[in-house]
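Same chain as my last thread, 248 residues:
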Amino acid sequence: MGIWLIVFILAEIVLFLLYIYFLKKHPVLYMPFDYQYRVLKRAYRAYKSVREGKKLYSVFADDFLFAYKRSLERKASSEELTVANRVCNIIENHKEKVERYFSGKFSYSDYLNLKSEYDLFQAQVIEAQNEETTSDNHAKSKFSVTLRQKILLFESLFRVCKVDASNSDKARFIRNLLEVEPNTKDIANTNTYKILKTNNKELLVKGEIKARIKDYTYIVEQLEYLGLEKEKTLILNEINELRNSIEE
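reply #2:
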């Protein structure tokens, strides 16, 4: 009995491996287990009235999807819901594909081609959306001005105008002008300017030297617009000091 049990188990393993081997070469072997194919086959049978000219495509789509969605109101598995989203999308938004593949015999090979075509289209849509998002983010970053850059610019202008006011009053002035909420930490802090003037050693520890150079470069450009050459020179000297600290 024990030997026959071992033989039976080995036979099952061999048959399973053979099935996997042939499945790769002949995907049609998966057809009995392909739930999505069975659903689309039902849609294909319902499409017969369109082929015969008895129904418009829109009527077929509404009738089939209504009945199909009703059948899913009962407890549906996650696989069934995933397939439902795909099938509904194909029928509702890919009329041309459905008409092309349902016009004649709808074999499993036709189904695989339809599936492959749909998946490729979806991948292209996602790629286009990602590229658009990346492009939008790049445009925003290119033209946006950070809060720290604005504060540094105000600090330069205060220095040019020889503004004699406390740090808290200057912070309040900037906050009101920029319409920043009073509880915004970066600007409500009365030590704003002390933080901005953190020495180079601490900047190096925080890895912010390059970021500060970028901020100061923006300030130089704005001061140049105003013709404030003296203040611009001071900022350029600070940029050189920061660059030298990196080289060291």
